[in-house]
Amino acid sequence: MNLHTVIKYFVFSALFLLFTGGCAQKPAGEENREVKMVYSDWSESVAITHLAAVLLEESMDYKVILKLANVEEVYREIAGKEADIFADAWLPETHQSYMDAYPGLIETIGITYPEAQTGFVVPEYSTLQSVADLKNYPYPVIGIDKGAGIMQKAQLAIEKYALHNRLLSLSEEEMIRHLEDSVRRRKDIVITGWEPHWVFARYNLRFLEDTYNIFGEKETIYTISRKGMEEDHPRAVRFFERMQLTERQLNSLVYHVRLSEDPRQGVKNWINENEYIVNQWVKNLRPKRKKIM
Predict the structure, then answer these.
(1) What angle do CA 203, 207, 209 make, to 5 degrees?
(2) Prior bond to 196 cis, omega within 30?
(3) Could you read off the pLDDT of 158-181 as tens digits, one per residue?
(4) Which DSSP helix (H) or strand (E) runs through 111?
(5) What is the pTM of this model?
(6) Which of 41, 167, 207, 288 could form a disulfide bond with 28, CB atoms 3.0-4.6 angstroms apart?
(7) Among the listed residues 141, 147, 180, the one whose alpha carbon sits nearest the alpha carbon of residue 42
């Protein structure tokens, strides 16, 4: 092979690589396809967040960063644009004080679940019927982390009904262990409960009547975002606008996650059983691909 032929060969090779490399398909749309989600250590929050993360990553080509935080930190990070999404905002009662603390800095972008409820919860066999009946109940009310909105409502209920019960602040898992032990022994117990939650599918439970309506009527779980999320990540916002679960779907999702050591595996098991539903959420939202010459 003479020198002229060698030069032609290398020039052709370079042009070929430049052309084929330059025409490689790359996602169009947002350049930064990274979303940071914050969530709390509550059953439905863990399940909803990991469900969204799996679908955003595997169906929409996002990189999702997850951060576990207490509820006060969640709202502070969303308002301060340190995080993008929180998919477990209980409004207009349980989390309203956190929203009010950051006027104009947080946006609601979707309804995750439309029939949520909080309050004092007892086993069906309990003789207690209303919150006022706790005046004759000598034991503490078992609660969750003290920063939770439901704990603020619970303390307000204790004051409004002039109760003398202590309000214990435990983790959700510890509270559930107390509930399971009491139900097994058919003992009295009162917890700060909320629905949706897998325990309502597992045990016969009910809310105590709340005459003063301290806990409010049924609530809606929203997905909230930092300001400007729509402009930065319109496809992600469309996804969260669509991601709405029924009571059966959400309780089933939470239960799948509880049965798995890894929340992502529990989510994937649920997705396999609900492919039609999730396909509607991500339809036409997969990143378009274009050739960049």
Answers:
(1) 155
(2) yes
(3) 999 999 999 999 999 999 999 999
(4) strand 106-123
(5) 0.73
(6) 288
(7) 147
